[in-house]
Amino acid sequence: MSTFNSSIPFPTAFVFGTAAASAQIEGAAFVDGKGESIWDHFSRIPGKVHDGDTLDVACDHYHRFDEDFALMASLGIRHYRLSIAWPRIYPQGDSVLNQAGLDFYHRLFASMARHGITPWVTLFHWDLPQALEDGGGWASRHTVDAFAVYARTVVQAFSGVVKHWITLNEIRCFTWLAYGIGSKAPGRKEGAAVVNQTVHHALLCHGHGVRAVRELGGPGALVGLTDNCDVGVPVTETPADIAAAKAWFLDRNLHILGAIHGKGYAQAYLEREGAAAPKVQAGDFDLISLPTDFLGLNIYTATYVRAGRNGQPWEALSLPPNYPRADSPWLNLVPQSIYWAPRMCHELYGHASIFITENGCGYNDEPLVNGEVLDLHRRDYLRSHLREVQRAIQDGVPIDGYFLWSFIDNYEWEDGYQRRFGIVHCDYQTLVRTPKLSARYYAEVMRTRTIL
Ligand code: GCO
């Protein structure tokens, strides 16, 4: 292992940015012809979302994007990852195009350009048109055909304006958590065969997204997937624990990362799933395994893994109840996650360009006191993770950028507005934005390209 020196600046070309997603910040849920999304629908079912919070207003970014980009620019944020709301473009999923939806994003990208901010655009960040869900949602192959139409429309409309495309955000969350566990919209609780099929359909959409960018994205357009892989961190950074964590990583990610890098599903995955394995049609993997330009990783947490005993290849450890975590119960604090996930992707799949497309932490109740939010916990999270990013770069892992989640407090899915991930505070009554201490801290890191 290298001796790591955190005072070395980040490379000049390293991209610092922030991220958010359409459904979580835009509001204007039924404005200018936008169709209902599965989250608009799900949030109205009693008991599904904390306090029954809806996406109707959110941060009202739809009407305030100019103000938001001015604030971003004032903080020195030059790159912003956003997503396009599919139901604004095709309110019913496919069929009828809503020009007002495209016009909105034209205005938004023009404002970003005026403020000197580069867009990184995710085609799908969970807000599926409800009309498609009514026809079977991600369990139906019709959704794949609809996505292909949507992706081509959007990429063509913004070619020349958008150069960085992300096909899908976190397949696990909108398939397994949404169709298996049921905690996310549409809240279905299906068996393994259906869930595996939703993943397969998502992988096909990823392929359609890549193809759309290649054919219609214009010169220099880049495309990749954003994945929230399961991350294994070796308990000790010794060859035995590293090998165990790597073997665990490979196994846990066979169905998504393994699939996009293969010519079919891995034998180990097919054997494990048996009769529940996805149904694959001829030619599917020609799409799924199309080469991409970068890999996006959303990294928040990890599982500790050590060398196995009694002939086992690994041992994944459970955490003690008082292990430190953010207020999101799943967000155990493991900064080494952001070192090991990119390193393993680089070593196992040969990625030459990796972007951290999300990293951040959620806490409740971050009150404004004398005009300030002293979110020192977030500053510490950010700093400890950036140190691991830098360590990875110094060890030769090709991490080319980092997007902090999130620019502003927003709708945290089933946790509603209770959980705040922003470096900018949003007062949901007045919609006033106030940069937190973490925003000032990050601004200085970006300005000096050094961990302070
Ligand atoms: C995700 C999504 C974001 C979340 C963020 C915090 O990772 O779940 O990409 O939309 O808001 O990650 O949970």
Molecular structure report:
- The protein is an alpha/beta fold.
- The protein has one domain (15-229, 254-297, 328-448): TIM Barrel (Alpha-Beta Barrel), CATH 3.20.20.
- The protein has 16 helices and 13 strands.
- It has helices spanning 22-25, 38-42, 61-74, 86-89, 99-114, 130-134, 142-158, 171-181, 192-216, 239-252, 254-260, 267-273, 284-288, 337-349, 376-394, 437-448, and strands spanning 15-19, 79-83, 118-124, 164-169, 222-227, 232-234, 294-298, 303-306, 315-316, 354-358, 399-405, 424-426, 433-435.
- The strands form three sheets. It has an eight-stranded parallel barrel with strand order 1-2-3-4-5-7-10-11, surrounded by five helices. It has a three-stranded mixed β-sheet with strand order 6-8-9. Strands 12-13 form a two-stranded antiparallel ribbon.
- Helix 7 (142-158) packs parallel to helix 9 (192-216), helix 8 packs antiparallel against helix 9 and helix 15 runs parallel beside helix 16.
- D-gluconic acid binds next to loops.
- D-gluconic acid (GCO) is lined by residues 21, 24, 169-170, 173, 228, 298, 358, 362, 405, 412, 421.
